[in-house]
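step: validate -> pass
step: tokenize input -> pass
step: predict -> running
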Amino acid sequence: MSATAIEPTVRVTADSLRAYGIEAFIQAGLPEEGAAIITEVQLESGLRGQPTHNMGDVPGYCRRIKAG
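step: predict -> pass
step: emit ->
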């Protein structure tokens, strides 16, 4: 019998993800309007189940923005 690790589920609201994304992009150097637009695209993609573009990509995008 093999043991399967059960990963905990973390639930957050769309509003908290939106606030996180906007703040992260602003801190990376984007103006608020651009940060809000990109966040909405990423959030909507995540809510639709898109595996390649979602809120999980925000930290990497911010690193790339900061790096130029």
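step: describe -> The first helix runs from residue 14 to 28.
step: cleanup -> pass
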